[in-house]
Fold this sequence. Notes:
By secondary structure, the chain is of the alpha/beta class.
Amino acid sequence: MLENKKILILGVSKSGYHVIKLIANKNTLIATDKNDISSDIKLELDNLHVPFIKSETATEILDNTFDLIIKSPGIMPNHPSIIKAHELNIPIVNEMEVAYHYLPKNIKIIGITGSNGKTTTTTILYELLKLHNIPAVLGGNIGYPLSEIVSKVRENDVLVLEISDHQLYDLKDFKTDISILTNLCPTHLDFHGNYENYINTKKKIFNHHTKENLAIINKSNNDSLIITKDILSTKEYINDENNYYNNKGIFINNELIIELKDIKIKGNHNYENILDALVVLKKFAFDKEIIKNYFMNFNGVEHRIEIVDVLSNIDFYNDSKATNPTSTLIALKTMKKKTHLILGGMERNQDFHELNNEMKIVKNIYAIGEVSERVLAYAKELNIPCYKCNTLEKALEKIKELALDGEAVLLSPASASWDQYDKFETRGEEFKKLVEKMFDKSYN
């Protein structure tokens, strides 16, 4: 636990705000962000005796009197204050690392990371643990910073954490009992600089593991196999001869657990997510009837190939969580009708050519965001009609002109949202509101 330290809080986001509340009473804190904070948060910081300084870089605040920097996960490694902190030999961590030291000792921590599927896997595992009466607490990148929920964790609880690469980057002592690596593919390269740095950061999900700890690895994902060759964990795999899916159903230890016909969410990516969750669940409790009932009713995670509605006899799908081409590729594989694809967002040097094999289902492309020109050029290569719309509203206006009965509309941008939105959830919510507002309900 932190005591009597002078600490710079770099970024008063949700995670920054909650870590301040966790440690302010025993430390001297200064909070900074490039953006203004709300009056309510400012008042709360004042009550905690934590001064807030708005600053683009915070380099003018930082000096060698600070013992520690706690930074928001999304702040880039080349941020001026991060560079200066390295020069001053000031340690840098994030709120998850700090909150870890405030947890009860007698708990189980399950960490889930990967390029795709981690939110769905985390959700399924947490909800199944609860249904089996296992005392589980949910947190991490799924929307509940560990510093926010740490006070809710009790001895003998199971802590289920979705952990992003941005969070893993600044972890030091943090250790899980069970780690799931869903898969790996190139993404977030603007943050990490190259793919090698990215996958080595993902490998930190196995930090401090011994043979007493469990690693769940996707055997069909070669990069996952490569980086886990030398980890010390006890390894179990999905997509191997023991834990797999086929046309009949999901098998754990070669036992049929649930038939595919009883699973509401479809697609190979979802079957892999289910496998990951069930391999872990088997270590705690396992009731096949509970599992069957759950998957017969589970609709999937919001913003991930989420069916919004069927309006004017057109299917609308919100896949705003597809922030990289691999996620969009997965979405396209699930589409069965001619599809109007909304593509684009923040420029992160993403390669849209990864989508090529599944683009035959796409009738038209609607380019939005910073990468609109590159999306146009990509569509031209494939001879697919493309319309530069820049915004979701303009894209849906054009789609309203062109979409026909029996077709589908898919928001699956293959891009981060930060050029126009604070997070992908906001982009997805706007899409859903615009669909409801602009399209005719008469066919429902």
